[in-house]
Amino acid sequence: MGIEIERRFLVKPEAWQQRQHRLHGKGVKITQGYLCMGENAVVRVRIAEDRAWITLKSRIAPATRNEFEYSIPVSDARQILQTMCGTYIIHKTRYRVCADETDCWEVDIFHEQNEGLIIAELELHDPHQFLILPDWVGEEITYDTRYDNFNLAKHPFKTWSDGANH
Fold first, then answer.
1. Three-class SS of residue 30?
2. Interatomic CA distance for residues 23 and 140, integer angstroms
3. What is the pLDDT of residues 99-126, one digit of tens each?
4. Which residues belong to the active site?
5. How far apart are CA 87 and CA 21, in angstroms?
6. Helical H runs in the chain?
7. Is pLDDT above 50 for 166?
8. At 112, phi and psi to the nearest 5?
9. Contact 114, 150 (CB under 8 A)
10. pTM reported for the whole predicted model
11. Rounded to whole angstroms, how far apart are CA atoms 152 and 145?
12. HSE of 7, CA atoms in CB hemisphere, 13 A
Protein backbone atom coordinates (compact mmCIF):
# COMPACT_ATOMS: atom_id res chain seq x y z
CA MET A 1 0.00 0.00 0.00
CA GLY A 2 2.77 2.47 0.88
CA ILE A 3 2.36 5.95 2.32
CA GLU A 4 -0.76 7.26 4.07
CA ILE A 5 -1.14 11.02 4.55
CA GLU A 6 -4.18 12.12 6.51
CA ARG A 7 -5.48 14.96 8.62
CA ARG A 8 -7.89 14.29 11.48
CA PHE A 9 -10.50 16.47 13.14
CA LEU A 10 -13.10 16.27 15.86
CA VAL A 11 -16.65 16.45 14.55
CA LYS A 12 -19.23 18.91 15.88
CA PRO A 13 -21.94 16.49 17.10
CA GLU A 14 -24.97 18.74 16.46
CA ALA A 15 -23.84 19.70 12.97
CA TRP A 16 -23.01 16.06 12.18
CA GLN A 17 -26.45 14.84 13.29
CA GLN A 18 -28.05 17.26 10.84
CA ARG A 19 -25.69 16.06 8.11
CA GLN A 20 -26.10 12.37 8.96
CA HIS A 21 -29.85 12.52 8.25
CA ARG A 22 -29.05 13.52 4.65
CA LEU A 23 -26.54 10.73 4.04
CA HIS A 24 -27.39 8.03 1.54
CA GLY A 25 -26.48 4.57 2.75
CA LYS A 26 -25.64 3.25 6.15
CA GLY A 27 -22.43 3.31 8.03
CA VAL A 28 -20.11 0.32 8.21
CA LYS A 29 -19.61 -1.33 11.62
CA ILE A 30 -15.91 -1.82 12.35
CA THR A 31 -14.18 -3.79 15.08
CA GLN A 32 -10.44 -3.47 15.31
CA GLY A 33 -7.93 -4.82 17.75
CA TYR A 34 -4.25 -4.21 18.32
CA LEU A 35 -1.49 -6.81 18.43
CA CYS A 36 1.40 -4.36 18.75
CA MET A 37 1.30 -0.71 19.85
CA GLY A 38 4.74 0.83 19.88
CA GLU A 39 5.69 4.47 19.52
CA ASN A 40 6.93 3.83 16.01
CA ALA A 41 4.84 0.89 14.80
CA VAL A 42 1.33 -0.51 15.17
CA VAL A 43 -0.11 -3.85 14.05
CA ARG A 44 -3.89 -4.14 14.00
CA VAL A 45 -6.59 -6.49 12.76
CA ARG A 46 -9.89 -5.07 11.50
CA ILE A 47 -13.26 -6.55 10.62
CA ALA A 48 -15.70 -4.45 8.59
CA GLU A 49 -18.86 -6.37 7.76
CA ASP A 50 -17.79 -9.45 5.77
CA ARG A 51 -14.16 -8.41 5.18
CA ALA A 52 -11.04 -8.41 7.34
CA TRP A 53 -7.48 -7.07 7.17
CA ILE A 54 -4.26 -7.04 9.08
CA THR A 55 -2.48 -3.69 8.89
CA LEU A 56 1.05 -2.58 9.78
CA LYS A 57 1.65 1.15 10.25
CA SER A 58 4.67 3.20 11.20
CA ARG A 59 4.84 6.94 11.76
CA ILE A 60 7.01 8.97 9.40
CA ALA A 61 5.70 12.39 10.50
CA PRO A 62 2.59 13.46 12.47
CA ALA A 63 0.30 13.29 9.41
CA THR A 64 2.25 10.68 7.44
CA ARG A 65 2.65 6.94 7.94
CA ASN A 66 3.89 3.87 6.16
CA GLU A 67 0.88 1.59 5.79
CA PHE A 68 0.76 -2.03 4.62
CA GLU A 69 -2.62 -3.73 4.60
CA TYR A 70 -3.46 -7.35 3.76
CA SER A 71 -6.81 -9.12 3.47
CA ILE A 72 -7.29 -12.10 5.76
CA PRO A 73 -10.24 -14.45 6.30
CA VAL A 74 -12.89 -13.06 8.66
CA SER A 75 -12.72 -16.26 10.74
CA ASP A 76 -8.98 -15.68 11.28
CA ALA A 77 -9.62 -12.06 12.24
CA ARG A 78 -12.26 -13.08 14.79
CA GLN A 79 -9.88 -15.60 16.33
CA ILE A 80 -7.06 -13.01 16.49
CA LEU A 81 -9.40 -10.49 18.15
CA GLN A 82 -10.57 -13.07 20.71
CA THR A 83 -7.22 -14.64 21.54
CA MET A 84 -4.51 -12.05 20.92
CA CYS A 85 -5.86 -8.52 21.34
CA GLY A 86 -7.05 -8.69 24.94
CA THR A 87 -8.91 -5.50 25.83
CA TYR A 88 -7.20 -3.47 23.11
CA ILE A 89 -10.26 -3.44 20.87
CA ILE A 90 -12.32 -0.52 19.60
CA HIS A 91 -15.75 -0.45 17.98
CA LYS A 92 -16.96 2.25 15.62
CA THR A 93 -19.29 2.97 12.74
CA ARG A 94 -17.69 4.56 9.69
CA TYR A 95 -19.45 6.84 7.23
CA ARG A 96 -17.99 8.09 3.95
CA VAL A 97 -18.90 11.63 2.94
CA CYS A 98 -17.65 12.62 -0.51
CA ALA A 99 -17.65 16.18 -1.79
CA ASP A 100 -16.28 14.93 -5.12
CA GLU A 101 -14.12 12.08 -6.44
CA THR A 102 -11.02 13.33 -4.65
CA ASP A 103 -12.31 14.59 -1.30
CA CYS A 104 -13.91 11.74 0.65
CA TRP A 105 -14.09 12.17 4.40
CA GLU A 106 -14.27 9.14 6.67
CA VAL A 107 -16.28 9.87 9.79
CA ASP A 108 -15.94 7.44 12.70
CA ILE A 109 -18.57 7.36 15.43
CA PHE A 110 -17.03 5.44 18.32
CA HIS A 111 -18.94 3.07 20.61
CA GLU A 112 -18.61 1.41 23.99
CA GLN A 113 -15.63 2.84 25.97
CA ASN A 114 -15.10 5.56 23.35
CA GLU A 115 -18.78 6.56 23.12
CA GLY A 116 -19.25 10.28 22.58
CA LEU A 117 -16.24 10.62 20.30
CA ILE A 118 -16.66 11.40 16.60
CA ILE A 119 -13.59 11.83 14.40
CA ALA A 120 -13.35 12.81 10.73
CA GLU A 121 -10.27 12.12 8.63
CA LEU A 122 -9.31 13.00 5.11
CA GLU A 123 -6.57 11.25 3.14
CA LEU A 124 -4.37 13.67 1.22
CA HIS A 125 -1.85 13.61 -1.60
CA ASP A 126 0.40 16.10 0.21
CA PRO A 127 0.60 16.92 3.94
CA HIS A 128 0.38 20.64 3.13
CA GLN A 129 -2.60 20.30 0.81
CA PHE A 130 -5.17 23.11 1.16
CA LEU A 131 -8.41 21.97 2.79
CA ILE A 132 -11.91 23.39 2.72
CA LEU A 133 -13.54 22.14 5.90
CA PRO A 134 -17.23 21.25 5.98
CA ASP A 135 -19.32 23.03 8.63
CA TRP A 136 -19.51 19.85 10.75
CA VAL A 137 -15.71 19.63 11.13
CA GLY A 138 -14.24 21.09 14.31
CA GLU A 139 -10.86 21.17 16.03
CA GLU A 140 -7.90 19.55 14.28
CA ILE A 141 -6.41 16.60 16.19
CA THR A 142 -3.85 15.35 13.64
CA TYR A 143 -1.02 16.19 16.04
CA ASP A 144 -2.75 15.02 19.25
CA THR A 145 -1.77 11.36 19.67
CA ARG A 146 -4.42 10.78 22.37
CA TYR A 147 -6.90 10.46 19.51
CA ASP A 148 -4.93 7.82 17.60
CA ASN A 149 -7.04 4.67 17.44
CA PHE A 150 -4.41 2.54 19.16
CA ASN A 151 -4.28 5.07 22.02
CA LEU A 152 -8.07 4.96 22.26
CA ALA A 153 -7.76 1.19 22.66
CA LYS A 154 -5.29 1.67 25.55
CA HIS A 155 -6.86 4.80 27.08
CA PRO A 156 -10.55 4.97 26.10
CA PHE A 157 -12.18 8.36 25.70
CA LYS A 158 -14.66 7.71 28.55
CA THR A 159 -11.74 7.36 31.00
CA TRP A 160 -10.21 10.75 30.23
CA SER A 161 -10.40 12.98 33.29
CA ASP A 162 -8.55 16.04 31.98
CA GLY A 163 -11.66 17.77 30.64
CA ALA A 164 -11.06 16.47 27.12
CA ASN A 165 -14.59 15.06 26.87
CA HIS A 166 -16.57 17.34 24.61
1. strand
2. 23
3. 776 678 999 999 999 999 999 999 998 8
4. 34
5. 33
6. 13-20, 74-84, 149-154
7. no
8. 55, -120
9. no
10. 0.90
11. 9
12. 18
